[in-house]
Amino acid sequence: MAAGEAYAALSGERHRHGDQVHSHRHHGPHTHAHAHGHSHGLVDHSIKRSRAGVRAVLLSLAILGIAAVAQTLILAATGSVALLADVIHNFGDALTAVPLGIAFALRSERVERLAGLAVVGAILVSACVAGIEAVQRIIHPNAPDHLLALALAGAIGVLGNLAAARVRTRAGRRLDSAALIADGDHARADAYVSLAVIASAGAVAVGAGIADPLIGLAITLVILRITWQSWQTVRGHRH
C-alpha cells in the first residue's frame, strides 16, 4: 500500500469504483444517511426494508380505507361537498399502499414509480372534481341533508386518522423510524381536516349553508397541496 493510501485509510474513508480506489477525509463519525420525512404517494425506503414497517403502513392505510368507505356510504345521503373532499383526502392516503405493495412484491423501482404516478394522477383528478363541485355549490347553494349522519361521517374520519396515527407512531418508535413517526404526525393533522366536516354540519344546522362548499373548497386546496408534494416525490425518486 502506498504511503498516501495508508494515510487515507487511517484518516478517512476509502471507496472503490471499478478498478480505482479513492478516499476522502472527515472528522468525527461518518455516516451515509437519507433524510426521512412524510410524503404522500411513495413510502420511505427505510420502511420498505423492514417487514414490521411495511405491516404498520399497510395496517394504517387499511384503517383509512375502511373509514373512507364508511364515509362514502354516508356521502350519498348527505350530498355534502365538505364530506366529498374529505373522502377523497382519506382515499388518497389509502392509495399510497399501492406503490408500497408493488415495491415489496416485485422489487421493481420502475413499476413502483409508475404506480406512484398513477396515485398522484388519481388524487389530482379527484381533487379537481371536488373543487368544481364546491364552486358550483357556492354559485348555486344547496345545503346538505341528514346533518347528524354528516357529523358522524366527520367523526369516522377523525377516529380513522387518529387510529392510523397511533399505529404509525408506535411502529416508528419501536423501529426507530423517523419516516413512520412523521407519518403519524401527519395523520394526526389529517384528523383536523375530518373535524372540519363536523364543523360543516354544525354550521349548516344554524343556517350557514354556504359553510359546506367553502369548507369543501378549503379541503380541496389541502388535497392539491398534497398532490404537488406527491408529484415532487415521485418525479425526484431516484434510488
List the helices and strands and how they pair.
Elements: H1 3-11, E1 12-17, E2 20-25, H2 45-48, H3 51-78, H4 81-95, H5 97-106, H6 109-139, H7 147-175, H8 178-205, H9 211-235
Helix pairs in contact: 3-4, 3-5, 3-7, 4-6, 4-7, 4-9, 5-6, 6-9, 7-8, 8-9
User: What does the average pLDDT come to?
Assistant: 78
Q: Give the helix level as a range of percent.
A: over 70%
| Major pleated sheet | 2 strands, antiparallel
Strand percentage: 5-15%
Strand order of the largest sheet: 1-2
Order of helices and strands: HEEHHHHHHHH
CATH fold topology of the largest domain: Alpha-lytic protease prodomain-like
Distance between the termini: 34 Å
CATH top level label of the largest domain: Mainly Alpha
Radius of gyration: 23 Å
Derived structural class: mainly alpha
Number of helices: 9
The total of beta strands comes to 2
How many domain units? 2
Question: From the 3D coordinates, which CATH architecture of the largest domain would you assign?
Answer: Up-down Bundle
Keywords:
single chain, 239 residues, mainly alpha, Alpha-lytic protease prodomain-like, 2 domains, two-stranded antiparallel ribbon, 9 helices, globular, disordered N terminus
Q: What features would you describe in this structure?
A:
The protein has 239 residues and is mainly alpha-helical. It has 2 domains: 32 residues, no CATH class; 191 residues, Alpha-lytic protease prodomain-like. Helices cover 75% and strands 5% of the residues. The protein contains 9 helices and 2 strands, in the order αββαααααααα. The chain has a two-stranded antiparallel ribbon with strand order 1-2. A hairpin with a 2-residue loop joins strand 1 and strand 2. The longest helix is centred in the middle third of the chain and has 31 residues.
